[in-house]
Amino acid sequence: MTIALLTGASGFIAGHVLKILLEKGYTVKATVRSQSKADYLKSLYPADSKLSFVIVEDIAVLNAFDEAVKDVDVIVHTASPFHFKVTDPVKDLLDPAIKGTTSILQAAKKFAPQVKRVVITSSFAAIVNGSKGDWPEHTYSEADWNPVTWEEAIGTNPSTTYRASKTFAEKAAWDFLEKEKPNFTITTINPPLVWGPMIHDVTPETVNTSNANIWSLVNGSQATIPVTPALSWVDVRNVAEAHVLALEIPKAENQRYFVVADKFSYKDICGILLKNFPELSGKVPTEGGISTTKIFDVDNSKSKKDLGIEYISLEQSIVDLTKQFIDWVK
After folding, report:
1. Which of 26, 32, 137, 326 could bond 37 through an S-S bridge, CB–CB 3.0 to 4.6 Å?
2. Helices 12-23 & 236-248 angle (0-180, nearest 10)
3. Where do the NAD-dependent epimerase/dehydratase domain residues begin and end (predicted)?
């Protein structure tokens, strides 16, 4: 019986990771920030005796995961902030991402010598080179790294700070592996914008950052189709699947995976919404935006080859998510 530690279990991606782990028969020790979050997740699996919880209020605190790592066999570390509400770049984004990652690796080495695999949620933010803009001649893959500097990270651009937090956190993980030589291997999962159905506790006011982009198209708050700012996406179920497969497939040891379905435009998404949900006519914007543009390409061949992922289509992802939103706009 394999015992998995899942950090940040109340999050969007982690909710799906938890579901897959339990379905596959793992015993799961989940970290959450409060008892109320534990209670909600337990309510989803009331009869599952293989699920327990550890409260970790602040992942940036020294020794935050020392107790949580004990007695586990593998670790999936998803806990990291994803938002752009930045007052203090270091306190709000950089410290939680970087220290949260190094804290769990240090704890695993010190208190859990039996751990052999650690899978970490990173991001396309750690791959993309923001200074290159659209970069139409380039194809992004796992070989790319965001060249952001610390000076840029602590500046006034929240998007740059967020991207830096993911970049420095992932680099800290690989540096730890090289310098500390622990018993475990590391795999990082690097998704771009993540959409799809939500399992975690959520309300119209607390929709996670990526899905909030679609929610704004459904609820009538967008007068025009937004210009597409990110241009690559993936369904949350594929991201969660990648995390669990990375625990199980030997080829995934000490690898990073750019888990990406394809590129997109919000004009395409609005078309999908109106085709599948005609009752949203008048709410979904029909003017503005772009349909195509000359931008970078994305390469997901490594995740397909090593992990065997079959990517969910944009239409299926948006439809499955919007089915949840429809109840909120009635």
Report:
1. 32
2. 50
3. 4-259
> Cβ–Cβ contacts within 10 Å for residue 248, how many?
12
User: CATH assignment of 3-195+233-261?
Assistant: 3.40.50.720
pTM of the model: 0.94
User: What is the Cα 241 distance to its own chain's centre?
Assistant: 12
Cα dihedral angle (148, 151, 156, 158), rounded to 10 degrees?
A: 30
For tokens 């602040």, name the residue. Answer: 58
Residue 91: the pLDDT is 79
- Pairing label, strands 3-7, 27-32: parallel
Query: Which stretches within the chain are classed as H helix?
Result: 12-23, 35-44, 89, 95-111, 150-153, 158-180, 209-218, 236-248, 266-276, 301-307, 314-329
Residues facing residue 249 across a β-bridge? none
For 162-182, the DSSP string reads: HHHHHHHHHHHHHHHHHHH--
Cα–Cα distance, 57 to 244 (Å, whole number): 25
pLDDT tens digits for 123-158? 999 999 989 988 999 999 999 999 999 999 888 788
Structural element, H or E, at residue 77: strand 74-77
